[in-house]
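User: Run a structure prediction on this.
Assistant: Running it now.
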Amino acid sequence: MTDTKLLRELITNAGLKYKYVASTLGITPQALQQKIENDREFKASEIDGLAKLLDLTPADKDRIFFC
């Protein structure tokens, strides 16, 4: 289950827009929203893409996506 609050904070603090993040991951903004809200699961490739985009440490990645 994704830590919705933390992921949103990191995206906002990085100054990124959902549309840009979604485009980078190859998904629609609606799909990104559903995944952040835990209505759908992130694929491993999307988690890796977000980790790279947000410059997450492995511990950060675990805390956000595997809590």
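The longest helix spans residues 4-13.
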